[in-house]
Amino acid sequence: MKLVGKKLTLGLGCAVAALTFTACGGGVPDCDDSDVQDAVKKIYTERWLENNFYGAVANDDHKEASNFSKKAQELVMKELNLTMNNFATNRVDEKRNRVTCQAKIAGDMKSDKIIEMLDLFNRAAAARSLNDGEVLTDGKFEDYIKSMGGQSAYDKRLEKMADDYDKEFSDTQHNLEYTARRTDDGKLVVEVESGLPGRH
Length: 200
Prior knowledge:
This protein has 200 residues and is α+β, with helices and mostly antiparallel strands. It has one domain (16-198). It has helices at residues 34-52, 54-57, 63-79, 111-127, 138-147, 151-171, and strands spanning 11-12, 17-22, 81-93, 98-108, 174-182, 187-194, 197-198. Strands 2-6-5-4-3 form a 5-stranded antiparallel β-sheet, sandwiched between helices. Strands 1-7 form a two-stranded antiparallel sheet. The longest helix is centred in the C-terminal third of the chain and has 21 residues, at 151-171. It is elongated, with a radius of gyration of 19 Å. Residues 1-16 have low confidence and may be disordered. Keywords: Signal. It comes from Helicobacter cinaedi. Residues 1-25 form the signal peptide.
């Protein structure tokens, strides 16, 4: 699978994604608590990666490809800047220490970081054509690029995709519905119920 042709999709998904972690405090969390926002952003970023690069972020048996995929994922987790606003509390359940929330989420990532991410995912795709244990050298990656029309065509594709991502990020805000609850042992459980990126 060639990743350079993959277009960004930030549609709405319907699956629930959850994250549990230990956080300070007790009682019902607020929709805009920083711990809650961090959990929602992490869930959103992971789903975005899965839906845009599902072939590259799946558990990859190929060690060399997996290394490039992991580097790309780490880059996205670090560089994708998500912001949340327009928080609304839909329901508070004091008995369960649970709040049901709504908010808008938008993202931004610098163009050079998007190109770096795309290049890493392309290196992962190129590495999959190698025998396991074989290393993707610069020469082998150049051969892969030649098979896609050469360096100039490759660079243009990356720049075009980076522009598409940048435009999509700046033009799009998504409505999220999520819940946050605190367990008896102090863990914060956050579930995003709707608004996650969907695969199209």
